Structure formats: C-alpha cells, structure tokens
Amino acid sequence: MIDRYLLRYFLAVIDHGNFSRAAEQCNVSQPTLSVGIAKLERTLGRPLFHRTNRRVELTPAGAHFAVHARRIEAEFNLAEAAVAGQPARRTVRLGVLATMPTAQLAAIVAARGAGDEQVEIVEGRERDLLDRLARGRIDAALTLLRADNDRYAREPLWQEGYGLALPQAHPLAGEAVIAAEALADNVMIVRRNCEVLAETSHHFTTRGVRPFFAARTTNDDRALALVAAGLGVTVMPDRHAAPGVVRARLAGFDHVREMGLLYAAHADPADLGESAVVRAVRAVA
Predict the structure, then answer these.
(1) How confident is residue 113, by pLDDT bands cut at 50, 70 and 90?
(2) Predicted TM-score of the model (pTM)
(3) N or C: which end of the chain has fewer CB atoms below 10 A?
(4) Which CA distances in Å does 8 have to 25, 73, 76, 106?
(5) Owning domain of residue 128
(6) Do 145 and 168 reside in the same domain of the chain?
(7) Is 175 exposed, middle or buried (0-12, 13-18, 19+ CB in 10 A)?
(8) What would the mean pLDDT of 211-230 be, rounded to a whole number?
(9) Model pLDDT, residue 159
C-alpha cells in the first residue's frame, strides 16, 4: 500500500524539478523527502528519478507512474471536498504557447466566465510545454500540432500563416504582398522564439537580403511595439496585431502553423473538454 504523503512528495519533485524546492512545498526537510522518495521506489521496485547535480528527471517508470499519481491525488482531493460538504473546485492547468497573441489569450480568459473552476495558465515554448505534458505538470497545452507527434490526444483548432508586420508609415504599408527583395534596405526585428526562425532567415538570405537587425526579442508584444514605433519590420503569425502595425503577406513564404490542444496522458480529453477554459479556447479559436 502506498501512503498518500509519498504521492505528494513524488508529485512535488516533478512540479518543482528538484528535491529542495519540493521539500519546501511539502513543509518537510530535504532528507525527509529524500527518504520518502526512496521508500516509494522500494515499494514500487523501480527507480522513479534520474538524479544529477543540475536537475532531476523522470525515468520511464516514473513517467508512467506519474499519470496514475495525478489521478489518485485528484480523486483524494475530490473525496475530501465531498466529506467536508464543500463543492469540489476543479483546477485546470493549461499550457499556452508563448507565441500566441496576448489578446487571444485574454479573450479566452474572459470567455470562460465566472464559476468555481480555477485555471492556471502556464506559458512556455513548444519544447517546454511538451516536457510539462510528459511530466504531468499541465493537463493540456494550447500549442503547435506537429504531424510527427502522436504521443498525445489532440484537438485541432485553427491554422494560420506567417506574414510581415510593418509600421503604419512604411512606404510599402499599402501593399497586400511584398517580396523579400523589396525589403533589402530595411531594418528588421528578430523574434527569437519564432517557430520558423530558420526558415525565415533562409527565405531572405537565398534572395540576397541580409538586413541589419535592430533588435532581438522573445517578447512578441515588445516586437509589435517596436514595429509600431518605426524601429523595423518583422515576420510573425497572422493573428498578431497592434495599433500602428500593418500586416502584409511575404511573397513566396507559405509556411503555416496548425494550432490546437494536446491532452496530457493523465487527463481524460472528453472530461477536460467540458471544462470552462477548454470551451472558451474553442469559442475564441
């Protein structure tokens, strides 16, 4: 029989990535937590973590056990609420791709309405979100859907291309389609978190365009603000917009991203799909 406190120790290590922070969350000393994890591993007969000086990673057995541990802990919480005569308050942990427009995320939060459901928004790059899904640290991720990733249940929501973002006063702001060559003397802003950054660079360099880079940023809102201020132009997904910024197609740049939901292994897509926040994601998509 596995004691509940051992499950909490185990999940805390997953959530915090190391033993010291997990011990703080559980209000125990690190040696106490380490002894508990060792006891859990003896009980299960398998190592659950690879321990290194820098971080703690799940073993294959640990990743498999994490799916069940999440479900068990959730059921414990529901049972405690029921016995106490309190309505169970659900928490949905939603990962969100960092390159999704802030306005769209805000619309999702607003569309979920008032209710007992809690939502935890976890922003990250594509790789970060996949890692959190694998660890069971989020229930679903609103992210890129890749054809070569069939590990998780998925729900496609929308597709969008990539285009230019130009200052409103740019000489080419009235054009619907602009060739890379027409931007040869332009200053550019690099979105370092762009999923097609390498493809964007290749598109320009193969056409003999090697612009000066005035800024490099991982913050899309900042990139848009710099474009609006006239610092330069950039390439970004079509749904991004801001006052003072004009969007146009980049001729010959036909890359498209598919966005949707990936559901963690511990989550039931049918059940989670009825949550307020997932319904809001669909409505805003």
Answers:
(1) confident
(2) 0.78
(3) N
(4) 10, 8, 11, 32
(5) 91-158+258-284
(6) no
(7) middle
(8) 96
(9) 97
